[in-house]
Amino acid sequence: MPATDSSSAATSLGRSFLSLRRDHIPPPSSDHRAASSSDLEIDAFHRHAADLLLDLLSDSDDLLSLAWTRRLLDSFLICLDEFRAVLFGVAAAHQPLDRLLLDFLDRAVKALDLCNALRDGLDLVRQWRKHLAIAASALAPSSSDHHHHQHAPLLGEGQIRRARKALTDLTILMLDDKDAGGVVGQRNRSFGRAGSRDSHSHAHGHHRRSSSGGSSGSGSASHLRSLSWSVSRTWSATRQLQAIGGGLTVPRAHDITATGGLASAVYTMAALLFVVSWALVAAIPCQDRGLQAHLTAVPRSFPWAGPVMTLFDRILDESKKKDRKHSCGLLKEIHQIERCSRQLMEATDAAEFPLAEEKDAEVKEAALELVQVCESLKDGLDPLERQVREMFHRVVRTRTEILDYLSRPHNAG
Q1: How far apart are CA 212 and CA 79, in angstroms?
Q2: Are residues 139 and 155 in contact, defined by beta-carbon separation less than 8 angstroms?
Q3: Burial class of residue 163 (count of CB atoms within 10 Å of its CB; 0-12, 13-18, 19+)
Q4: Which of 56, 86, 236, 355 has the most CB atoms in a 10 Å sphere around its CB?
Q5: Sorting pLDDT into bands at 50, 70 and 90, what band is 288?
Q6: Domain boundaries, the chain
Q7: Helix 332-348 / helix 157-180 crossing angle, nearest 10 deg
Q8: C-beta of residue 235 within 8 angstroms of C-beta of residue 289
Q9: Confidence (pTM)
Q10: How far apart are the first and last CA of the chain?
Q11: Rounded Cα–Cα distance for residues 173 and 169 (Å)
């Protein structure tokens, strides 16, 4: 089994699944035959997935921010752990289940490349932040000046020129990404090197890149070469999403009965894998990103059906807004980068020196907002990347466990 990040935030979240089951499972009605323990556990899994999605929808102002995206990944990791608890706590030898699990594994492997592409996208946002920081440091008054704003010296021509140069470089970088995938498609790293020196050094901000363009290393990590490569220049986030969600159909009643209800849990987990992948691609810069893929209609008998459709609709609405249509990503902080940069370029365009006090105040006000964006990116990008890395390793671990389960003698026939 590949090494995983034992410090994952998700492992310390909330209560254990056993306590969740106690809280979510209602007492059997005296008017109906008491449901089996497995039925109740599967039902609790479905309803907790719905609760987590509803919680994500509860704060519309925070939608697609760095903090919200981390919560999205937390929710996914919780659901994945609960899915494993249900699957391995209830599973027996069922041929339909074996077929459905192999289909789920195929989708899960496709999500691994997506995780690598998402890390590349977050690294790109880091590059943007460097240019923002240059502009912010050139224009923003120091903390001491901020408290005595009326006494702060007027901005000079050199400061304005330095800031405009940084913002121009930033704009070119962002346009390159929109037009041709930018440097997103030229990365050479992979989460596959779990437990290697690279994984450790990356967590501290030092990136070692494989000259082969794929996963490298030995021991527990070497077999991941077959699971995930760093994305190539022809890789497409849109096609990858279509592969993860394509052909995902609601299990037949016969299969649900034949698997003791587990077929519905496998379907739910596969749907959540697609939904989370789709939302991450919507938020984070990715090569050839697009939101055309959509989840086939989910029957209302699944408690999470309504929340999932609402989530899709809200993200699509966000993507259709006039000022977001051609954005590199719907992450709230990316929108702030674009807006702050535009405001500062407009405020400093054709500036005459010395600046009038009103113009100076306008530029400094815009620069302070730029400082705030820089700080939120500085605080939020690394934790989000750790969550994406944890998603990668948790999916790999789940895949290993399922393959082990399928290879046991009692599943041979």
Answers
A1: 35
A2: yes
A3: buried
A4: 86
A5: very high
A6: 61-187+231-411
A7: 140
A8: no
A9: 0.80
A10: 25
A11: 6
Provide the H-helix boundaries in 214-296. Answer: 237-245, 253-258, 262-283
Structure tokens, 158: 């050199």
- SS3 assignment, position 199: helix
Q: Which two tokens stand for residue 86?
A: 């249900």
User: What pLDDT score was predicted for residue 281?
Assistant: 97
**CA–CA dist 250, 263 (Å, integer):** 9
Query: In degrees, to the nearest 5, what angle opens at C-alpha 14 toward C-alphas 274 and 9?
Result: 65
pLDDT at 122 over 70: yes
Arithmetic mean of pLDDT, 107-127: 95
C-alpha dist (Å) from residue 192 to 112, 127, 204, 213, 285 = 9, 23, 17, 12, 21
Instruction: Please calculate the CA angle 77-233-380 and round it to the nearest 5 degrees.
Output: 40
Longest dimension (CA), the chain: 84
What pLDDT was estimated at residue 153? 86
- Dist CA 252 CA 264 (whole Å): 9
